Amino acid sequence: MGISRRLPRADEERTVAINKAKQELGTVIPAEITVTNATKVRLLAMYLAWKGANDNIQIAEFAKTTATALVESTKETAAMFIRHFIMVFNMGVERGVYTAEQRTFFYLDVANDALPAIVSEADITLWGNRIIDGDALRVAAGGAAMSNPTAAEVGTAFGNFNTANIDQEVKTADYKAKLLVRTNLREDADAVILKIWDETETFYNELPAETKRDKCRPWGIVYISDVEVTINVEILKDGTTAPVDGASTNLAESDTTRVANSAGMLQFKTTVADLVTLITNKPGFVQNTTVVNFVPGQVLYSVTVMLVPV
Fold first, then answer.
1. 36 in Cβ contact with 199 (< 8 Å)
2. Architecture of the domain made up of 223-307
3. Per-residue pLDDT at 192
4. Sign of torsion, CA 235 239 240 244?
C-alpha cells in the first residue's frame, strides 16, 4: 500500500490546513515547534489574512442571500399588483367603466381580455412600466381613474421590486469581490502550507514512517493511501439501541460531512491513511469524537457512535 501526502485542493481544505497549523503552533512547547521563525511569521500573517477573507465572504454571502430573498418577495408582490390591475381594468371594460380601446395605452389587445404572462423579472419590468406610463396617458386622454389597485399602488410595488433588485445586484457584486480576495490569496496560502509541511516532515524525518505521520498530522498534513476504505457509522442514543437520525458526522482529515438517515446510519468512503477522526453532532446531544485506526489490508469498518443527551 502506497502512502503519500495530499496538499489542499479546495479553499475549505486550505482553511483546515492553515487553522490546524496555527492551532498546533500555539499548543506545543517551543522545543516541538517544527517550523522556522520565518515560516512561523508567514503562517501567522496568512492565518489572519485567510480568516479575514473567509469572514468577509460569510458576511457578504449573508447580505447577498438576504437581498435575494427580498427580491423574490417584492417580485411576487409586484407581479400580483400588475396582474390585479389588468384584471380589474378588464372587468371595468366589461362593466362599461372603461372602453376596450383604452387597452392600447397598455399595449394590450383591444379585442382580447387575456392576462399576459407575468412571471419573469423581465415580464414585471415590461408590464410595470406599461401600466405606470400608460395609465397616466389614458387618464390625460379622458379615461376614468383606476382603483383597487391604482396605477400609483402598482408603481409602489414595482418601485420596491426595482430597489430590491438593484440592492441585490450590489450585494452580489460585493460577494464576488470578497471571493476574489480569497482567490488572490491562494498562491501565497499554498506556498505557506507547503513550507510548513516540508519543514514539519523534515523535523520528524528520523522517526519510523507511521510515527512520523502521527507527529505531522496535528500540523495539518493529510496523508492518503492508494486503497479506498469504507466506514459505516451507526449513531445511537447512549445506553439504548434507539437510532439518532439527522446527526451530522464530520471526517476531520478530509473535512467531509455526512448526515445520518432515519436508521441513524451514514457512510464514508475515504483514502485517508492510517486513521480518521469522526466528529458527530446533533442539537440536544454532547459532541462525540471517535478515532478509527485502520488495520493494513482491511477496507471495511463498522463504527457505533453513542450520543449522550445534554
1. yes
2. Sandwich (2.60)
3. 98
4. negative
Name the β-bridge partners of 280: 249, 288
8 Å CB contact between 85 and 157: no
Residue pair 221/197 in contact by the 8 Å Cβ criterion: yes
pLDDT for the residue numbered 45: 98
Grid cell at residue 171: 450585494
d(CA 21, CA 86): 64
Q: Dihedrals φ, ψ of 242, to 5°?
A: -75, 125
Where along the chain do its domains lie? 8-222, 223-307
Distance CA 94, CA 59 (A): 53
Mean pLDDT by 10 residues, the chain (310 residues): 90 94 96 97 98 98 97 96 97 96 97 94 96 97 94 97 97 98 98 98 96 95 94 96 96 90 96 94 97 94 97
Distance of CA 154 to the CA centre of its chain: 35
